[in-house]
Amino acid sequence: MKLTKLEHAALILEEAGKKLFIDPGSFTTPLTDTAGAVAVVITHEHADHWTPEQLARILDMNPGIPIYGPSGVAKAATGIEITVVNAGDVVTAGPFTLRFFGGKHAVIHSSIPVVDNLGVLVNDELYYGGDSFTVPEGIAVDTLAVPAGAPWLKIGETIDYVLAVKPKRSFPTHEMVLARAGKDMANGRIGWATEQNGGEFFPLEPGDSLDL
After folding, report:
1. Which residue numbers in the chain have pLDDT < 50?
2. Beta 209-211 vs 200-201: how paired, if at all?
3. Quick one: pLDDT at residue 31?
């Protein structure tokens, strides 16, 4: 399985000539090469993780494919068919098996409502928690997408998250809110935390790929 990191929180997984898109949002360059998609996963309703325009670019080339997300996404995505999933659900789309975890977005502030959020484990290989620090209990995570910068996190929480998950490999995501200096700092901390349990850190930039 091939992973390609796009800007911010967007990922493409490719297996056997088919593609899975995860969280193509407003901080991600407009998608173009979307042919071959079999599904989309949206972890939660915030615009930096999906937009109608990004979904249209996928659906135009792949009409009728399922878009998976929690109930909050279904309410927000007016006029777009969303297949609602919940923590504990397992679904298959083409060569991809998707297992969902969690349920709620990390707290930003008491004045801001906490929305639905689901983490997803793809083919028992890649775990991406969306905007949460949900640890997939009972799962040995091979590759972890690690949030590097957001209004809902501080780097100490990110470090503790990586230490708890103990991935064999990790890479940064959710970092378009950071300047170059901030990205470098976060990469250093995430790399350190990954290495504490014998894992390897990959400082992927938008457009970089990793074979899983």
Report:
1. none
2. unpaired
3. 97
